[in-house]
Amino acid sequence: MNIPDNLFYTKDHEWLSLDGAIATVGITDFAQKELGDIVFVDVDSVDEELEVEEAFGTIEAVKTVSDMFMPVKGTVIELNEELDGEPELINKDPYGKGWIIKIKVADTSEVDGLLTPDAYKELI
Amino acid sequence: MKKTALNDVHRRLGGKMVEFAGFDMPVQFEGINAEHETVRTKLGVFDVSHMGEFWVEGENAFSLVQKISTNDVAALTDGKVQYSCFPNGKGGIVDDFLCYRFGTERYLLVVNASNIDKDWANLTKHNTSDAKIKNVSDETSQLAVQGPLALKAMQKLTSENIVGMEYYTFKEIEFAGVGDVLFSTTGYTGSGGCELYFPNDEAEHIFNAVMEAGEEFGIKPIGLGARDTLRLESGFCLYGNEINDSTSPIAAGLGWITKFVDGNDFIDRKIFEAQKTNGVPRRLKGFVMVDRAIPRHDYEVCDENGDVIGKVTSGTMSPMIKKGIGMAYIDKGYWKEGSEIYVRVRNKLVKAVVKKPPFFK
Q1: What mean pLDDT do residues A92-98 have?
Q2: Could you report how far apart the first and last alpha carbons of chain A are, in Å?
Q3: Interface confidence (ipTM) of the complex
Q4: Which of these, A121, B108, B120, B161, has the minimum number of CB atoms within 10 Å of its CB?
């Protein structure tokens, strides 16, 4: 199972990387394997400010529909448009080309409360 | 949980196992979309040994099968297969099934795994003239080899002519060195191919022979996930979704297997005939999403004002046309090809149009 050392994780199987106040968010390798083929990503929260753990969109595999939750409070500033035509990027490259949204984080210190790679490894 | 004779084989091939109808079955191997495409373009092999098989034999076999079957069993000849439904006596459906005629006094009924017990109870209940009935579900294995290259590949395993067989016919043949394999040109994918029935102790040998014969054509093992997307893309009913104990075959678009001919006095004929004459308020229809969304089981179908006009029975993202597709019971007035309907997806109305399946052609 691929769990990169340089990322933060959530119990909802999302990852987050931070660059200044901008966070990139996706789902983990474990999550994409569990879900199987991702066929649709529905995010209609761009430009909205959302609370931590509020749903920012939905990810659909062939047989399942799952909500995706904000790992931290912030404003959704960008959706990975590539996923519209190629949702399978999430299966192929969950930590790279398969990123899902970018967030302008309200308070970057909130990121310290997320799971470390080791803590996430424990969880799964 | 029950296991088919191929359980170890599935695990060895990396199958992701799930519980289905009380069986430990592979839902996928390499991935549902890739498996789906393999069947549409080449060929794939499914273990469908969880399905049930009942023999009905003897001089009263015909009258029993005719009574419990909506289709006209008298229209069957030896070596032919017929798709049909068991009515439940209340205008609903116990199950859908295949009927194989081996002779005027010998029929094989193939039923859904999830319904084996209630189908057997139904058969037993109506067997008032002592036809000889036998449930061989537990000792019978079944493989479906499906796809445009399936028959060509399977021809390598038998000297009998199978590539020339008509759709929905069968033969008992020597196959991969095993005698008396029941070989039928049937399936649940809409891409052609065959289904094979044989005793459990031949399962691993026949599965390996099928994989080897299909190798040069690109054969792959296929799980239940792709079985569902393939049948839905073709618009085939799934018991529990499109049909159940409270749906009628007339509303489900199965009028073509509900035959009101002389001599076919099946259970619930009066109810279904009245529905055919008077019409039904809701019918099962296929639809394709116009705007991007995936319809799912039980989502509401609405008109443009958001008033409910139906309910989705099955939906998925079509792996071939990359659009949301589905089937739904829809009110009269929206049945015409191209009618605009809306599906309520997470509280948004998303536009779709009524379309007759198959969706992938």
Answers
A1: 98
A2: 10
A3: 0.88
A4: B161
| Nearest-Cα residue of chain B relative to residue A88 | B33
Closest residue of chain A to B325, computed from CA coordinates: A62
- CA contacts within 13 A on the Cβ side of A122: 6
Supply A36's token pair: 């199987």
Q: Which domains does chain A carry?
A: 8-106 (2.40.50.100)
Neighbours of B66 (CB within 10 A): 19
Residues of B in contact with A60 (CB under 8 A): 294, 317
For chain B, how far is it from start to end, CA to CA, in angstroms?
38
Show which residues on chain B lie within 8 Å of chain A, measured between beta carbons. 16, 27-28, 31-34, 225, 228-229, 292-294, 296, 316-317, 324, 346
Is pLDDT of B80 > 90? yes
Q: How far apart are CA B245 and CA B231, in angstroms?
A: 21
Mean confidence (pLDDT) of chain B: 98
Chain A, chain B: beta-carbon pairs less than 8 Å apart? 39
Find the length of chain A.
Answer: 124
Task: Tell me the one-letter amino acid at B80.
Answer: K
- Inform me whether the pLDDT recorded for B361 exceeds 90: no
Nearest-CA neighbor of A85 among B80, B219, B292? B292
Domains detected in chain B: 7-50+138-233 (3.30.1360.120), 281-354 (2.40.30.110)
Q: Quick check: B292 and A37 CB within 8 A?
A: no
Interfacial A residues in 53-72 facing B (CB < 8 Å):
58, 60, 62-63, 65
The verdict on pTM exceeding 0.90 is: yes
Are B294 and A84 within 8 A, CB to CB?
Answer: no
